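User: My advisor, Dr. K., asked me to get a structural model of this assembly before our group meeting. I'm new to this, so sorry if the format is off. These are the inputs:
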Amino acid sequence: MHRTLQITAGSVILKDNLPVNQVNSCFEADPEAVTALPRHLRLTSNQDLGPEVPPEDVLGAYCHPEIYPLVLTNKTQEIFNCRIDEDVTDEQPYKLIRKEDIFSDFENRAAVSDFYPVKKIIQEYPGDELLLVYDKDFKYGLNFYLIGTEEGKENYLNPPEVPEEQEECKEHIPEDTYIYKPPISKPWVSLGSEKEIEEESVKKSTKEITYMISRKRSEFGAPVKFSDQNASSVKDAYIECTAYPDKNFTLKQLERDVGMQVVPKIKDTSTQTRWTYPKNATTQYYPREFSEEEKEALGQSKTLTEFLNNVSISVEIALQQNEIMNTFINDWKSLAEEEGTFGDKTDTHLKEYQSFTDLHNLTEKMITCVSWHPFIYGLIAVSVAVRLSFEERVHFSGKLLLQPSLILFWSFSDPIQPQLMLESPDDIFCFQFCPSDPNIIAGGCINGQIVMWDITAHADRIENIKAGGSRSKNVTLKPMFLLEPETNTEAMYIRHCAVSSIENGHRKAITDIHWLPDTFEINRLGSVFENRSGISCQLVTCSADCTICFWDIRPQKALTPQPPTEKKKEESIEVPFDVPSTFLHLNLSWKPLSKIRLSKGETTLDHCPTKLSLSEGSLLYKAQDKMLAQSKAMKAGEMNPYQNLEGGLGNHLKPIDDFCTKFFVGTEEGEVIYTDWKMERDPETGRFMTKKPLSLYTVHDGGVHTVQRSPFYKDIILTVGGWNVAIWKEGIMTGPLLQSSCAPKRYTSGHWSLTRPGVFYIGREDGYIDIWDLLEKTHEPAQSQNICITMITYIKPWTFSAKQQFIAIADYYGTLHILEIPWTLSHPSTNEVSSISHYFEREVKHLEYVEQRKKIREEEKKEMEMEKKKVETYQKSKEQLEAKLKMDYESYLELEKNILINLGLIKVEETMSNMEMI
Amino acid sequence: MVVNAEGIPIRTTLDNSTTVQYAGLLHQLTMKAKSTVRDIDPQNDLTFLRIRSKKHEIMVAPDKEYLLIAIQNPCE
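Assistant: The format is fine. Below is the predicted structure of the whole assembly, which you can bring to the meeting.
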């Protein structure tokens, strides 16, 4: 328990660390009194009170609040007769002092009085006498104390029973008052706090070192001299801690991220050139050459000869190598092409595409000729004729006159309505588009006339044919008998614009008509000339009256002056206004250029030609030809050269020499004639006559209706007639290369395939089409397909594109079937052309061989007959033959016996029995 | 045709202008070919040069002083 005693100026404060409700006594003391304080109370600054003050007394002072410690001076003691050790002794430490005395003291000494601090208490003291106790032991801190209450006084005065009283007081005290019990000091028990204090206290651990540095006094303040010194030179001038590699801290870097960039080396340089003005410069050179003398000199030199000797060997080898084989051939490519065709559609059938029938006309008609338009896609022209024999025609002639004979133009887009209808005076049996201008059509009539049409006016109509959706909306399929031809406003009737002269032309039906190609012309004598007009202007026809005529469509210069009256007559013929006047000059006055009569020699019977085929007769159209024709027309400077045909006549034409004027003719009797149209001078009569035919073969059993050149080979001709087919080669006079055997049905039409050299189509009279493939089979058709129920009258294939190839088949009942040719039939295999040509060559050789064999056979036959006569036959009689046989047999048996004996198989005894058996 | 070492034709079966053209061009080509072969292997030397084109084949036989050029149409 600590107590602090604070001494401030003029006051002494005794503080105790007791809880607040304890009274801290504070009293004033004059300076003198301060010195009177007992020693143990005299405090220096901030010195703690030691345990010298008995805590009991101090406590006691505070347990009794009525006790007021006082300091009485000697003077005061004298006044109140309480002088220490005189009046107040140990036996009687107290003294009763009257209150009045105190008051008088107060009056006398005022503030100096010792009783001044307790003045208030004295004044309030109810009694008269106050007890003043001498505190010898300084129980209450001062030498005297005053008891402030009567009770306290009485308690003090009556103290002998204090312990008992105290015990009784103790029992009573808690009931009555709280008596302060000062804390009793006990000996300090260490609870370990002194250790904490020791730990916490800061003590100087290090021994303080003191340095004493002394210097000579004279040196104080003297200037300092600094100098350098190497640390290593002086011993112990420095202490170093060298670094050493510590293994614990060394790291071996195993990975490192490094970035790299490649940078091109760039170097900038610059130069400066002097730019002068640009100047054109030219050089001219000629090659160095030796003069002739030099060349010769060199040529003679030895070195050259040596060189040539050395080198020529290798060059020869190289040349020969090339001749033997082409080493650079790509085998894979040639393989692949063949594979391609096999892998593709294996369908070999002709597929039905479309069919056209004329529904308007009432009579039964058959189609006689079919021709595709050269360049308009899907346009096909068909000539129809009445299906009547000659007698019937005569019978019904009146009726027939009323019905127009037509050439119908069909388009793929419109199967019901023909696009155009060309009118002709009589039935047309054959017609052809002009190769130079497809708007000109020439047809051969049944009455022997040639009919010409010009459809340039309607060309745009047929060129712009589209799927007739808008047109055919209103047109519904009405039955045939309701449809009237007059209401048909779509298809127009186009009248012919020229017909040939009746008297001068053919007498009988024209069976074939061809345009001559635009490369040559023929004059009246049959000589061939160059064609400068660039158009086809000549026709050739053959008819049943055994003549072949050449016609020219250009106006003829009249060789004989015609009487003017006849001219007028012709001019007065009215021409309908809508007919173009292209061939007006020909109309009804057209004469053939020359006529060839196919006579059979001495007899009056002549050949009736049915078909012809001219050399250079490849009159098939391709798109390029159209362009050529157009370009030629443009070069001539005219839109349509046919409009101005007179211009071409006046030219002097250059004759073409070495032109083959021979051609093939097929006749009604089944003969194939190879003849010449050039007229020769008959030595006897001096007139120009037709030559005799060069070769004549009767190959077919019926009329030849197809004579056609192959589109691939200029000299291979196909002839179809009767029941068989023959293939000819021009120039081979011995016979046909191939002649088929008789077919079960009659062949009625035929045509080469346009794209495959070994394929041709034959139509039969039962409506079947036979497709022959010479690479597959040569003795019979490769395929046979049924098209219609009746006889096929005409076959015409046509190619529109590489993928689309059509074949038009016309039948006897007037229906035109369009079929699509499959891939296999339209695409040739590789080397097919060469294979077929090889085949034909082989056939030619075969023919030659046959010829030779014939000769050999004849010779052999002769020899055989000779031998027969020479050699006598010796006839053996029958019995002699038998005897001879028996003798042979016996000799054989003996031989057998001998062998067996030798072998040891048979014993001699047995052999005897064997002999007997025989 | 026979051409000398400098490319001047000596003997020929073709017409003049063609000869001159062939001689000049082929002479240069032969020199180039020869130097190429020599560069690759100095022990080697050009013995024959054949150029095959679509239409024909040109054969060149070189020598120290002269050049023999032949033009052939292969059979195919």
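One thing worth pointing out at the meeting: Residues 150 and 719 of chain A are 184 Å apart (CA to CA).

User: Perfect, thanks a lot.
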